[in-house]
Amino acid sequence: MNDEVDLEIGDFLQRKKRRKLIVTLLLLLAWAGMMAYMSAQPYTEQDLRPMLRGFDLSWVERWLGWVNFTYASSEISVAYRGPAAFLEFFIRKGAHVAVFATLGFLCIRLLTAWSMKMVIRAAITLFIVMTVAAIDEYRHFLHPGRTGLFEDVVLDTVGGLIGMGVYVIFYKIKHRK
């Protein structure tokens, strides 16, 4: 009797693990497809400045007018770019981080299906994130109207590391003994 119950519980856990693997794989494939689609769009189709100009952006200069730095040999400041382009810069770079954080999270979660140490999963995920980031920026470099930047590869990698870190925190909390 106990053997039958143990077998049923083990069977249930295997099905649950398989379902988690399939869902994660499907989410990862959908996410990668969305990334490829967005990456193939010209900048003119992603330009947020016209929409942002429809808002009162006087607060940007008042609160952030002091911000001035260089990113990929370009000056980033309200005075140089204007309020809409200044905000768009941060929205676009924030999107880089969020997109690659999600990629990192999904990749490391998918790798939990295989029995390997977390450090190995993290190394494989980091390699995948960096490779996808480099390919993405190379595609931008080749696409007219887009700019491929090494700095964006670094930013994407940081995003991936954030996603991996979030997953590891959730994993450690769930598997606390």
Automatic annotation (TrEMBL):
* Keyword annotations of the record: Membrane, Transmembrane, Transmembrane helix
Q: Does the keyword Transmembrane helix apply?
A: yes
**Which one Pfam family would you cite for this protein?**
VanZ
**The organism's place on the tree of life at top rank:** Bacteria
- Spans traversing the lipid bilayer: 21-40, 94-111, 118-135, 155-173
Every copy of the VanZ-like domain together lies at 25-170
Q: What is this protein called?
A: VanZ family protein
